[in-house]
Amino acid sequence: MSNWTDAHCHLQDQYLGGRELNVTAPEALARALAGGVDRVVVIGTDATSSRQALELTALSSEVQVYATVGLHPHDAAQDVEDIVALAREGHPRLVGIGECGLDYFYEHSSRQDQRAVLVRQIELAQELDLALVIHCRDAFDDLLDIFDTCGVPARTVIHCFTGTPDDAQNCLERGCDISLSGVVTFKNAGTLREAARLVPLDRLHVETDSPFLAPVPHRGLANEPALVRVVGEFVAQLRGESVEEVRRATSQNTARLFGLPSP
Question: Could you tell me the pTM of the whole model?
Fold first, then answer.
């Protein structure tokens, strides 16, 4: 089955070269195409990876590659204005801001810096009318407070969602979409699977977050966009929907979110 979309992946050299996959981005895209994936969104996490994400959009004519620019909460001590300047250059395949957000599990940056950098990127997404890609781990209360204060861009997704059903419902009520990664296939993801069942089909996305979080039965290995269909097939079974329904809906939803041509 073809025409899957990977709504969130990292194909920059700094990611691929440091994992067991150890392939180049063109090789990963060729494997994606062979696996039925014909559209990917490459995500920036700092100024360097964001520039590389934009460069990667020129790699393939068979797999459509789009990019975001953003500053990850782990790196919130860096200058977010580098991301602002990069976004304002107006690259033709720039489709989103992020990933940005809050991570209170690792706290590689102070919570104060994380919140300030997130607010700046929300403002940037609103200014440029781009999608907003949110990373949130153990921080949904603060995320919702920021959304309620600053507003939520019209096209916002909680990527690699790992929250509770209540967290999902709170994000959905504020207009956010929900994106599921290979985490939903993990044995200990019972609460997440409950949340996944309640997301309306027209607000759902699937992603790999590659090269991280490979889905079962590939857990422990490096992830890649070709495996997004494994996530999609699991989600379809979990929700009692056909694989074709989930493939079609998630591809359309990601196109809508990022303002891409209809798949």
Answer: 0.96
